[in-house]
Amino acid sequence: MNQPTDDIKEKGEMDMLKKVRERFVNEKGFTLVELLAVIVILGIIAAIAVPAIGSIIGDSKEKAHTSNALSVIEAARLANANGEPLTSNNVGSAASDEGYTLQGLVSAGYLDSIPSDPQGDGQYQSGYVVVGSSTTSNDVTYTVTLKGSGGEDRITNETKSSLNE
């Protein structure tokens, strides 16, 4: 083997390694282009994630209203089964508006408290369950209405079966 050429090759390789090492040792941070690329990528991810999260939150609020309405219907069903007297809710004709108010169900112990309005501050402003019975069978229907903390209709004249759809 040719010793002087091998030494020159090794020296050249050593110089190249030394330069590469010096370059990496002197590199202390990110370039502006690298930082901008990261910011753009984060912006794209945020643009995709924010609407998706917004729809998930909206869906969960609707499901919370439905769950609250089903709880109120169940409380009214128990109150009716136990013979609690029906009261007029002043929502229609005298024959068809008898049922239970949220406050009445709380007072009688069928609800621990008036449920919280998931879209507002605090509890539902008002709510009632109209108890109706069929003239041809022994079926009893329970129709719930819940008004939000600001007076907005959250659930309007919904039955258990329509809430479960």
Automatic annotation (TrEMBL):
Pfam families: N_methyl. It comes from Pontibacillus yanchengensis. The chain crosses the membrane at residues 35-57. Keywords: Competence, Membrane, Transmembrane, Transmembrane helix. InterPro entries: N_methyl_site, Pilin-like. The lineage of its organism: Bacteria, Bacillati, Bacillota, Bacilli, Bacillales. The keyword Secreted does not apply. This is Prepilin-type N-terminal cleavage/methylation domain-containing protein. PANTHER family: GENERAL SECRETION PATHWAY PROTEIN G, SLR2015 PROTEIN. It is found in: Cell surface. It comes from the Bacteria. GO terms for biological process: establishment of competence for transformation. The keyword Transmembrane applies. One of its GO terms (cellular component) is cell surface. Its main location: other.
